[in-house]
Amino acid sequence: MARPSKAPERRAELVAAARHTVVERGVLNLKLRDVADHAGMSPGSLLYYYPSLSDLLEDVQQEAVERFCVAREAAVAAESDPRARLRAMIGSGLPNGKNDELCVLLYELGTIARREPAYAARHIALYERQVRGYVGILEAGAATGIFNLADDPVTLARNLVTLEDGYGLHLTQAVPPLDRSAAEAAVLSYARVSTRCSLEDPA
Fold first, then answer.
1. pLDDT digits over 151-173, tens only?
2. Mind telling me which residue stretches traverse the membrane in this protein (predicted)?
């Protein structure tokens, strides 16, 4: 009987090695040898599993997007009240700081999306998935009379995601111009104005 292939396990290890290498070194000057060294193998051995560094980074991006979105969806699902769900959505979308591995990874890979359609497609999918999450929360809050939306849900959702992205990018800089609590307070401020709701839990 043929032994089971270790290729899926090895690819998962290479994705993990590439993820850490991107966070440590950045993506713009990243070389295949950098990832191979981190994985403890030769560049030629790495190419057996991935034909190019770009192919490997595509899997890194896909895995990072899924982890990020699943974590956000789980945070929201744990709440039932639209106010709490909106706060959870906002809180789960901002990096914890410049050492937030997952958010740094997504921002780094986002630079490739400027030039590579495949990366851009996944970046768009990430954006749209987050917008849908916000739209669901906003529509549910409006339907129950808790929210009185200042604009249509899609526009508000897009603005919330864009605010998160902007503040998040600043939070991951070498010298952040503000801290996470200030960034979260700013996004929450927009959310309160947009929903005409204090977003506090009912007494």
1. 999 999 999 999 999 999 999 99
2. none
165, 145 contact by CB (below 8 A): no
CA neighbours closer than 13 Å in the CB half-sphere of residue 196: 9
105-136 burial code (b ≥16 CB/10 A, e <16) = bbbbbbebbeebeebeebbeebeebbbebbbb
Q: Which two tokens stand for residue 198?
A: 């204090």
Give the whole-angstrom CA distance, residue 107 versus residue 16.
Answer: 17
The values of phi and psi at residue 74, to 5°, are -70, -40
Q: What global pTM score does this model have? A: 0.89
CA distance 32 to 30: 7
Tens digit of pLDDT for each residue in 83-139?
Answer: 999 999 999 999 998 889 999 999 988 888 888 888 888 889 999 999 999 999 999
Helix or strand (DSSP H, E) at 131: helix 117-143
Name the residue type at position 189.
S
Tokens of 62: 């896909």
C-alpha 161/C-alpha 194 separation (Å) is 13
Angle at 167 between CA 122 and CA 92, to 5 degrees: 65
Tell me if residue 58 falls in helix, strand or coil: helix
What does the block give as tokens for 129? 């998935």
Rounded to whole angstroms, the Cα distance separating 139 from 47 reads: 48
Q: How many CB atoms lie within 10 A of CB 54?
A: 13
